[in-house]
Design goal:
- This protein is of the alpha/beta class and about 260 residues long.
- The chain contains eight helices and seven strands.
- Strands 3-2-1-4-5-7-6 form a seven-stranded mixed sheet, with helices on both faces.
- Strand 1, helix 4 and strand 2 form a beta-alpha-beta unit.
- It is globular.
């Protein structure tokens, strides 16, 4: 009887250990296989926003695109990417700024939006614009190709930011920059804290070059350069909310 009791306890202990071990393994079934080597972001993600361009006149009335292109020092002949191009508000204005000697690659994961953009590009005869579908965790940009990459009011919708940014890193030319326009509010409310944004970019091998509040953009403007090296996916640590808040408090107290 004693031996039977010990056997029962051993079986129960083994089952408990197995259960405990299972509980420690995170469920990754909702992630694409191409993202599993990267950490999951420690924050919620916004649902995809509308791609409709009914507000283009309102955006032009406050000079949004022109201001962003001026901040980015965009000039004739540059090669740029418009990620999350949607209906093409920025695409058509970028094409005009870089001129016939420049190139614009418009990318989105929404095939319907890309179809409408393709018709717009054809209608407006924008011969310097190319259109390409991307993936949620990969912008699918050619290496060493872009002077500027624009992520305007879309980064908070990226479900796998570490994989996405890591794969974007090689696409910049020497001296190239990634331009982000977003709003300082929670990531599940179509915005992102600029300190969290900076942390996520720095984790994958970028350096903050410029950060400025821009009321005319209904948000802020951030500009990142490529650092000298890019970490291996397994060396990337997800930015934690408490650490980001502490850095923000330290910066605010220092600026005061």
């Amino acid at each position: 009887m004693i031996h039977a009791a010990f056997r029962s306890l051993a079986i129960l202990a083994s089952a408990a250990l197995m259960t405990a071990g299972c509980e420690r393994v995170p469920d990754e079934s909702d992630r694409p296989a191409t993202s599993l080597e990267f950490p999951r972001p420690d924050r919620p993600v916004s649902e995809l926003g509308s791609n409709q361009f009914s507000t283009e006149t309102a955006r032009d009335s406050r000079g949004e695109a022109q201001k962003v292109m001026d901040f980015a020092e965009l000039t004739t002949g540059m090669t740029v990417a418009d990620i999350g191009a949607g209906e093409g508000y920025y695409t058509v204005r970028l094409a005009e700024r870089v001129g016939t000697e420049g190139r614009v690659l418009a990318q989105d994961i929404d095939d319907d939006a890309l179809g409408r953009l393709a018709r717009r590009v054809e209608r407006e005869r924008l011969d310097n614009v190319s259109i390409k579908p991307g993936a949620p965790d990969d912008p699918r940009l050619p290496d060493n190709s872009f002077d500027r990459i624009f992520l305007v009011h879309m980064y908070h919708e990226v479900e796998e930011p570490y994989a996405f940014l890591w794969r974007l890193w090689p696409a910049l030319k020497e001296g190239g920059m990634v331009i982000v326009v977003d709003v300082d509010r929670p990531t599940d409310q179509h915005g992102i804290d600029p300190f969290l944004l900076t942390c996520e970019f720095e984790e994958v091998g970028f350096t903050l070059d410029t950060l400025r509040n821009a009321p005319e953009l209904a948000g802020y403007y951030a500009q990142f350069r490529r650092a000298a090296t890019r970490p291996e996916p397994g060396a990337i640590s997800p930015c934690k909310g408490a650490a980001v808040k502490a850095a923000k408090r330290a910066a605010e107290s220092g600026s005061g």
